Amino acid sequence: MNDIRRRLRIILENASRIEIGETVKVTICDKSVEAKVDSGAEISSIHATGIKVIGSELNATILGNTMTFEDYSKRNIKNPNGEEERYVVELNLELKGKSFKEDFTLTNREHMEYDVIIGKNVLKDNFSIVI
Description:
This protein is mainly beta. The chain has a single domain (18-129), classed as Acid Proteases (Cathepsin D, subunit A, domain 1), CATH 2.40.70.10. Helices cover 14% and strands 57% of the residues. The chain is globular, with a radius of gyration of 17 Å. 21% of the residues are buried. The model has no long low-confidence stretch (mean pLDDT 87).
């Protein structure tokens, strides 16, 4: 009986989630881009260049838009090359008709296939990945 209840709970929890694939179209920083969905990434990531702190503000060019942030933090991120410290900012994101304000790490992704990685912080209670 407990196994049936557990399975029913899982089905009900997933019923309200929107299904997405390995890639998904998102609107972020006034741009519509194809993003890679990464269920192993704790936090989402976005392509940024010219990342500099001037006084108390963080300046960065994100997807071609120069932006300034007063609220930002740093976070250690594990990647295939080890660990690196990245700046984290909050960005508005639209995905599958839902709008979010979520944290993104800033990193130069110019040699990567996707400018945006959608991680667990966006996926959490909202989406199910269908492969």
